[in-house]
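chain below, 325 aa
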Amino acid sequence: MKRKFDKSGLEVSALGLGCWAIGGPFWAGDTPLGWGEVDDAESIRAIHRGLDLGVTFFDTANVYGAGHSERVLARALAGRRHQVVIATKFNALFDEETRQVTGGDASPTGIRQACEGSLRRLETDYIDIYLFHDNGFPPEKAQPVRDTLEALVKEGKIRTYGWSTDFPKSAEFFAQGEHCAAIEAELNVLDDNPAIVGVCEQHNLALINRGPLAMGLLTGKYAAGTGVSIDDVRGQKSPEWMKYFKDGRPNPEFLKKIAAVREILTSNGRTLAQGALAWLWARSANNIPIPGFRTVKQVEENAKAMQFGPLTPAQVAEIDTLIRS
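prediction:
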């Protein structure tokens, strides 16, 4: 299965790998923003396994692990950079030593400094897709951001760009940019965003799906009482925007939705996670889910979803009735 970034000519596997979790711990004050401790050697083995299974798209951000995710990805892709498409993100300011997020900078100077930092950590001379990493930034103030990205394309630093945002007005504004090719938005079978899907389909933008497995709920590993470690972004000190977990436990509202559609998602031999990915591919031809990973086993399960392909229109309609009626 393949997907194209129509406005750029880039072609990638229909499934990407999200590299947030492999960055390891980082914080804003005492609030964890990572997914706990990681094993870099296992992360690299997992990326290599993804390559073996046909995954050619990797999504990271400068802030994941305060730069560590980009560095691990560079190590894993040494000698194979030309085989893949890399998306990374900018805006956050952070200290690589303390792993503390210290603020944000969307100024033209800040964007250029962030770009140089990511190029250095990724050990590459270009970024395929450069994403603005500020979900709620006012679109009416985003002209200098888009202009700077267009300049970086002309300079050969980046090939194309987009915005990681859940807001259609923001997506619509960036879509007017000549070299904008993608929007990254939260989207999964439990939490649809028809307005964002509509913007991407109208403008032929790739829709990179973050949270395609609802931050782990759609793997089936978490029951009502299952706890998450204190250094995990889903834990007891989770940030305000965390909706899939509350006080370190799965949100009961979303667990009820999973129970309602589990049978459909696991039909035809799929695991729950594979069914959730299949729904995204059926939802829109523009969708590119990027499930996170920390182990080889997780990559193998998610990559196998490409063998099953999308759900049928009838299954999607049934799910819609069960969840959103």
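The radius of gyration is 18 Å. The chain has a mean pLDDT of 95.
thats it, cya
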